[in-house]
Amino acid sequence: MEVHLTSDLEARLAHLATQQGRETEALAREAIERLGDYDEWFIRQVEKGVTQIEEGKGLTHEEVGARIEKLLDEKSR
Known about the structure:
By secondary structure, the protein is an all-alpha fold. 78% of the residues lie in helices and 0% in strands. The chain is elongated, with a radius of gyration of 21 Å.
């Protein structure tokens, strides 16, 4: 597989790799892996939320507001 980068992105990647004492390709692979891991996690979380809503475990707007208010109140103490 080949990935074509803009010259600006390629320069940024090269700069980061140099700062970290790493190869540019290794840094690019790691970035792609992190993105894949994050996207997989995010999709699982959305699916989990959809399942909870389908099971009637969702919160009303008012319940969400009450929870946020409680958290903010606790944090301000």
